[in-house]
Amino acid sequence: PLVREPLEALRRPSLSVPVLSPLFCRDGNLQDIVNRGSLHEFLVGLHDQFGSVASFWFGRRPVVSLGSVDQLQQHINPNRTTDSFETMLKSLLGYQSGSGTGGTEALMRKKVYEGAINKTLENNFPILLKLAEELVGKWQLYPKSQHIPLCAHLLGLSMKAVTQLAMGSRFSDDTAVIRFRKNHEAIWSEIGKGYLDGSLEKSSSRKAHYESALAEMESVLKSVIKERSGQGSMCIWAVHFLSISEAVQEKLHQELIDVVGDGPVSLDQIPQLRYCQQVLNETVRTAKLTPIAARLQEVEGKVDQHVIPKETLVIYALGVVLQDADTWTLPYRFDPDRFTDESVMKSFSLLGFSGNQACPELRFAYTVAAVLLSTLVRRLRLHQVKGQVVEARYELVSTPKDDTWITISKRD
């Protein structure tokens, strides 16, 4: 049975940030996170209650959460050198920030990643085109009434893109791709949920499955988890949003005809597809594609009047910020034209989704999505399935809870 320990057993953080008191000090607010359904949904409620700067307990560890652009800007500037994905996982799992060399190491690693991804795209761009052509060619054979499951098709596309570009012909066989995808999904689900709510440690069968899948994945490819998850979800959400916005779809079609014409898109043409970039930016924002990031406080810092001690994990509640009405006009509307506003782009870049703050993997995801849309939208019209309600599942990357469906028709 659970034993309720006195809250005084928790070491009160030496900061003035409003804190959500936990029921049990052993687990902190983990049960509150579980009850909300995800860390993102918990943070939405936390910031609704306490404002843009708040804190909670992850087990016995205090965590600060920032939920507005102004507070993020104050914190990012002196703490921009660490990788947010890795920081959060390492911090929650008990790593310390080290001797201060982590920032330099992270910058060097980022440069290596950027060089490797750029070279991979340049050398293997025809593979991306081939994969997109194969998918669109398959869809063109479907009748108008055929319901197409986006998650099943586009997660498969993204997995093939990552594995074939990274490891070549080894993953040209669908059986290997399916095996890899199953292991990947088992791992990603537990990273996104099991670690964050503590449930993985409480289930021996889940932990055994996770460790088995992890061992097999590590022997194949260690970096694919992060790259594939973002790009697959971006493709799914982009096609979904286009299917429910005919005007956006037609405007994108016109740009593709003007820039690309009838032939296949080239890598050099992708930066010229400005409206396509706006569509993908708005996809990231509306879907809250990456709802959470983090920084580990390397030295004592300050946000507004709040002092944040060294070694404090600071969560960036990006999913909260991306729907903040003070930053985005009509935040729940899918409107790519908002990104013609320079101030909007500045806020978006600050959050790490474009410009110098963006991670190298994001460029890979944008490129895959741009190739898919340039191939798909020039040949087919995308239509929503009437009566379908699409709900999101928020882990470290947001995806539809269930598969989302569209129908298509051929363009004249």
Helix/strand layout:
Layout lengths: L29 H7 L2 H12 L2 E6 L2 E6 L2 H8 L7 H9 L9 H39 L7 E2 H18 L6 H24 L6 H15 L5 H20 L2 H14 L14 H13 L6 E4 L4 E3 L2 E3 L4 E4 L1 H4 L20 H9 L9 H20 E5 L7 E3 L3 E3 L4 E6 L2
List keywords for this structure.
412 residues; alpha+beta; three-stranded antiparallel sheet; 14 helices; globular; disordered N terminus
Can you walk through the features of this model?
There is one protein chain. This protein is of the alpha+beta class. Helix content is 51%, strand content 11%. The chain has one domain: Cytochrome P450 (Cytochrome p450), CATH 1.10.630. Mean pLDDT is 81; it is low at 1-13, 79-85, 89-101 and 221-228. The protein has a four-stranded mixed beta sheet with strand order 1-2-7-4. The protein has a three-stranded antiparallel beta sheet with strand order 3-11-8. It has a two-stranded antiparallel sheet with strand order 5-6. Helix 1 packs across helix 2, helix 5 crosses helix 6 and helix 5 (102-140) runs parallel beside helix 14 (360-379). Keywords: Heme, Iron, Metal-binding.
